[in-house]
Design a protein that fits this description.
Blueprint lengths: L8 E9 L5 E9 L2 H6 L11 H7 L19 E7 L4 E9 L5 E7 L1 H9 L3 H8 L11 H11 L7 E8 L2 H8 L1 H18 L5 E4 L4 E6 L4 H17 L9 E8 L6 H38 L4 H18 L3 H13 L9 H4 L7 H8 L1 H10 L8 H5 L21 H15 L11 H10 L7 H17 L1
Antiparallel strand pairs: 1-2, 1-5, 3-4, 4-5, 6-8, 6-9, 7-8
Length: about 475
C-alpha cells in the first residue's frame, strides 16, 4: 500500500530476540516506494540492517535517534519531529501490523507548520520558547525560579525538591560525540516527564542538571519516585549504555522554612550521591566501551594479552620501575579506546584508507586521551594514550615529542604493538611472517622506533625463537 503524498513514507521492522527470548533489537525488513523520493537515501544502505546500527552509524537519519530508545515490542506512539537534513516536519506514527512487525509511518506536515508559524500564533510560540529549554523542551531555570516563588505557599505544603545530575555525560560526549550526549539528555528528559504529574515542574537548570518541584508531596513519595526512576534507567539502556542519574531529595514541611535552604539541601544530597554513583557509572561505561570495541575492531582480549607479554618482556630487560610496568599494562589494554569514536565503516574498511579516513583514524589518540582523562585516579595513562603513536623521528601524531622526549613506556609499547600488528591479519593488509616483522622493526630503528630498544627487542625475539 502506498500513500498519496510524495513526502510520506513508512518502514517496517521485525523484532529480534536472543536465545533466552529477550528482545534485543529490530531489523529493517521493508521500506515503502516513496522512501527514496522523499529522503534521497539509497535503500541499500539501511535495508536489512539492525536499528541500533542504523542510528549509530548514520547522523540521526530520519530523526530515529530522537525516539528509538522507547521502541520496545508492541510499541505505539505518535511524535512530531523536525528532520533537519530533509528540512521537513513530520508526524511519526508507530504501531504494529497484523504480523506484529513494527511500522513507522512518516506523515509530512511541513506546510501545516509553515502556515501555523505565519499565523497569529507566532506570538504564542515566541512566548512559549522563552521558558523552555531548547534541547529537551523542559522548563528552564528562569521559569523554575518564578514557579518556586509562586508555589512557596502554605497550601502547597509539603513541597518536595528533587535535584538530578547525569553521571558521565562528559565521557559520553568524548566517546560518542555531542550528538549522543544530547540524545542522553533528551532521553533523561523524556523519562522524567513520564514519571511525574502534570502539575509537577520538571526543569533542566544546567548542562547535565535537572530540578523538579513537587507541590503537596511528601519526602517519602519523592524518594519512591527517585527509586523508580533509577530502576527504569537501569532497565532501559541506550545502545546498551546504562544511563545513570544521581538524585537528591529534600522537603519543605513547615511554612517558616526557607525554600532556598531546601533547594540547597537537595543539591548537597545529590552531590553526596554523585561521589559514589558517578565512579560506578564511569566504570560501567569504560567496560562497555571496551566490549563494544572488540565487536567492531580486531581488539580482542587475546590481542591485549599478547601485547602485555611482548611489552613486559622488553620492559624487564630494560629494567623500568614497577610503576612504569603498571602504566605499560594499562596502555596495552586501553591504548585504542578512542577508536570507539571512529566510524565503524572506516575501522573495518578493507584496503588502503584515503587521506580523509586516515585523518579520522588519527583522531583516536585524542579521543582516547579525553575518555581516559575522566579516570585519572584509576587509569593514570591519559597522556600516554595521547602520544602512543609518536615516532622517534618526530613524524608521528599528534607530533608533540620525538626521540627520548617520548616516555620510555610508549617507546617500548610502540615496538610491541607494531610487531603484533604485522604478524596478525588486519582488514587493510595481510599478516607477514615473524622474521619479516623483525626485519621491518630493524629497518625502522632510528626513524619510527627507538634504535636501542628496537635492536634489543629483535635479539630477545630471536632468543625466544631459539628456545622455542
Amino acid at each position: 500500500m502506498e500513500y498519496p503524498s510524495i513526502n510520506d513514507f513508512y518502514l517496517k521492522l521485525k523484532s529480534i530476540y536472543n536465545k533466552d527470548g529477550n528482545f534485543i533489537d529490530y531489523v529493517l525488513i521493508y521500506i515503502s516506494e516513496n522512501f527514496s523520493k522523499a529522503t534521497k537515501i539509497n535503500t541499500n544502505l539501511i535495508m536489512g540492517e539492525k536499528l541500533s546500527d542504523i542510528v549509530i552509524e548514520n547522523d540521526n537519519i530520519l530523526g530515529l535517534k530522537e525516539f528509538y530508545f522507547n521502541m520496545l515490542p508492541k510499541t505505539k506512539g505518535k511524535h512530531e519531529i523536525y528532520i533537519e537534513n530533509l528540512d521537513r516536519w513530520y508526524i511519526i506514527n508507530i504501531f504494529n501490523d497484523k504480523e506484529e512487525n513494527l511500522v513507522i509511518f512518516y506523515c509530512d506536515i511541513s506546510e501545516i507548520r509553515k502556515n501555523l508559524i505565519a499565523s497569529n500564533n507566532m506570538s504564542h510560540l515566541i512566548g512559549v520558547s522563552c521558558y523552555r529549554d531548547n534541547l529537551t523542551n523542559l522548563y528552564n531555570r528562569g521559569f523554575l525560579e518564578e514557579e518556586l516563588k509562586r508555589l512557596d505557599t502554605k497550601r502547597q505544603l509539603p513541597i518536595t525538591v528533587i535535584m538530578g545530575d547525569i553521571n558521565g555525560l562528559k565521557l559520553i560526549n568524548d566517546a560518542f560525540g555531542h550528538g549522543m550526549g544530547d540524545r542522553v539528555l533528551k532521553n533523561a528528559a523524556e523519562i522524567m516527564k513520564s514519571h511525574f504529574r502534570k502539575e509537577d515542574i520538571v526543569s533542566r537548570i544546567g548542562g547535565d542538571e535537572f530540578m523538579i518541584l513537587l507541590p503537596k508531596t511528601s519526602e517519602e513519595i519523592g524518594l519512591s519516585i527517585v527509586n523508580r526512576l533509577k530502576r527504569f534507567c537501569e532497565n532501559n539502556p541506550i545502545d546498551i549504555i546504562k544511563m545513570s542519574i544521581s538524585f537528591g531529595v529534600a522537603t519543605k514541611e513547615k511554612f517558616d522554612e526557607d525554600i532556598k535552604k531546601i533547594v540547597k539541601k537537595a543539591e548537597e544530597k545529590m552531590y553526596f550521591s554523585k561521589l559514589k554513583e558517578s565512579k560506578e557509572a564511569k566504570q560501567e561505561m569504560i567496560a562497555f566501551l571496551k566490549n563494544r570495541l572488540e565487536t567492531i575492531t580486531f581488539e580482542t582480549k587475546a590481542h591485549y594479552e599478547r601485547l602485555k607479554e611482548l611489552s613486559l618482556m622488553l620492559a624487564d630487560e630494560v629494567g623500568i620501575s614497577e610503576m612504569e610496568k603498571e602504566e605499560l599494562r594499562l596502555l596495552c589494554e586501553f591504548h585504542d579506546i578512542g577508536k570507539i569514536g571512529i566510524p565503524k565503516k572506516i575501522l573495518q574498511k578493507e584496503g588502503i584508507l584515503n587521506n580523509e579516513e586516515w585523518e579520522d583514524i588519527k583522531r583516536h589518540s585524542e579521543i582516547g586521551y579525553n575518555i581516559v582523562k575522566e579516570f585519572r585516579d584509576t587509569l593514570p595513562i591519559d597522556e600516554l594514550i595521547l602520544v602512543h603513536h609518536e615516532r622517534w623521528d618526530g613524524k608521528g601524531y599528534p607530533g608533540l615529542y620525538k626521540d627520548k622526549q617520548i616516555p620510555i613506556v610508549v617507546r617500548i609499547f610502540a615496538i610491541a604493538d607494531a610487531y603484533e600488528a604485522m604478524v596478525n591479519d588486519r582488514p587493510y593488509k595481510e599478516r607477514i611472517s615473524h622474521k619479516q616483522a623483525l626485519k621491518e622493526i630493524l629497518d625502522k630503528a632510528g626513524s619510527q622506533f627507538d634504535p636501542n630498544l628496537a635492536n634489543l627487542f629483535v635479539k630477545l625475539m630471536d632468543k625466544e625463537e631459539q628456545i622455542g
